[in-house]
Amino acid sequence: MKILALETSCDETACAIVQDGRKVLANIIRSQADFHQQYGGVIPEFASRQHIEAVNYTVQEALSQADLSLESIDAIAATVGPGLVGALLIGATTAKTLSWAMQKPFLAVNHLYGHIAANYLDTDLSPPFLCLLVSGGHTQLVHIKAYDDIVCYGQTRDDAVGEAYDKIARVLGLGYPGGPKLDKLAQTGDPKRYTLPQGKTDTPWDFSFSGLKTATMRLIEKENALIDDAKKADIAAAFQATIAETLLKKTVKLAETLEVTTLSLAGGVAANSAIRAKLADIKHTHPEWTIVLPPLAYCTDNAAMIASSAFFNPISSDLGQEVFSRSPVPLGV
Ligand code: KG4
Ligand code: ZN
Questions:
Q1: The Cα angle at residue 171 between residues 167 and 176, in degrees rounded to 5
Q2: Residue nearest to atom 14 of ligand 1 (CA)
Q3: How far apart are the first and last CA of the chain?
Q4: Does 331 score more than 60 pLDDT?
C-alpha cells in the first residue's frame, strides 16, 4: 500500500510517499527556517502563506522522486494536529482535495503519533516499545503497546525540551532554530564546571524544565557568560547534560517498571547528541535491551513519518476531520 502524506504543522512543507508504512519511496522537505530566522521564531501567518506557495510543488516533487503517478497512490494522508492551525489547514485541505478528486481514501494523522512512527521507517521494529518523545512542543514518555494502542505515562508540566533549548539558545545569542546550535556548542564545553538543578515533579513520570531554564538564565547573567566564550560553552554543556540525565533516568525507570525491553526516541530533539549518546549507553547497564535511534532525517518534522503513521495508526478517515492546535498523546494512567 503506497501512501502519499503531507506535513505542514509548523515551518516545514513536506510531502512523502511510503510503502506499507516502512519503505520510503520519496521524502521531500522544504524548510522555512531561513525565512523565520530573521524574526527569531516562527510567525504563524507567514508560515501558512509559504505552505500555500510550496505545497503543490512538494507533491509534484515527491511523485517525481518516487517515479509514480497520482493514480498509483492508494491513499492520501495529512497531519491534522497538533500544530499551527493555519499551517495545518494547508496540508490537510490539499490532502482532502486530492483524496476527493482522485477518489482515494483520506487518512488523518496526529503529528505526535507521526513522530513515534518515524521509528518504523527503514526498520522492522514492532511494538511493544517505550518511546521518549521530545520535540519543540512536547515532551512525553509513551508506551506503544500495539500499533493502535498508545499510552502516555508522563509529560512535561511546563516547557517542552525543544522550547527550553530554543530559549536558552536565544539568550546565548545563537539564533533560531537554537536546539542544534546549542547542541553543537555544548559539545565543546565542560559539563562538570557548573551544576544545574534537575526539575522535580510530584508525579513519577512527568517532567519540568522551567526551573532549569530560569536557573540557566540566571547563571548566564551571574557569570557574565555572554562575553566569555569558554563560560558560554561550559554552561551549554551543563544544560545539555542535565536535560539528558533527567530524561533518561525516568525513561529507564519506566521501562524497568513496565518490563519493556525496547526503547526508542522520537521528535526533533531526538537529534540531540547527548540524548542519543546516553540512550545508546543504556546497553552497558541493560545489554539485553534493544535501543532504536531513528535516523536524524526522520527525527525533525517530515512527511515520511506521517505516511507511516497513516498506515499503522490513522486517527480518522473522515473527510470532515477538522484540524486541531493542541492535543498531546492521550494520557493512559
Ligand atoms: O519535532 P520538531 O521538528 O518540531 C515539533 O514538532 O516541535 O522539533 C523541533 C525542535 C526545536 O525546538 C529544535 O530546536 C529542536 O527540535 N532540535 C534540537 C536539536 N535538533 C532539533 N534540540 C536539541 N538538540 C538538537 N540537536
Ligand atoms: Zn514535530
A1: 60
A2: 179
A3: 34
A4: no
| 136 close to ligand 1 (CB < 6 Angstrom) | yes
pTM above 0.85, yes or no: yes
Distances (CA, A) of 317 to 59, 258, 299: 20, 32, 25
For residues 30 and 54, the answer to whether their CB atoms sit within 8 Å is yes
pLDDT at 329: 61
- Pocket probe mutation, ligand 1, options 31, 131, 135, 298, max atoms within 8 Å of Cβ: 135
The CA–CA distances, whole Å, from 48 to 41, 97, 136, 162 equal 14, 17, 18, 22
> Is the separation of the CB atoms in 77 and 314 below 8 Å?
yes
Cis peptide before 330 (omega within 30 of 0): no
* Confidence at 333, pLDDT banded by 50, 70, 90: very low
Ligand closest to Cα of 266 equals 1
Percentages of the chain per state (helix, strand, coil), in multiples of 5: 45, 20, 35
Q: How far apart are CA 144 and CA 257, in angstroms?
A: 15
Residue 81 has pLDDT above 80, yes or no: yes
Residue with cell 498509483: 72
Atom of ligand 1 at shortest range from CA of 138: 7
In the reported structure, the alpha carbon of residue 302 is separated from the centroid of ligand 2 by a whole-number distance in angstroms of 8
Ligand 1 atom closest to residue 83's alpha carbon, by position in its atom list: 6
Q: Which three cell numbers stand for residue 115?
A: 513522530
Grid coordinates of 204: 513519577
**Measured distance CA(6)–CA(79) in Å, rounded:** 7
Q: Is 51 in contact with 296 (CB distance < 8 Å)?
A: no
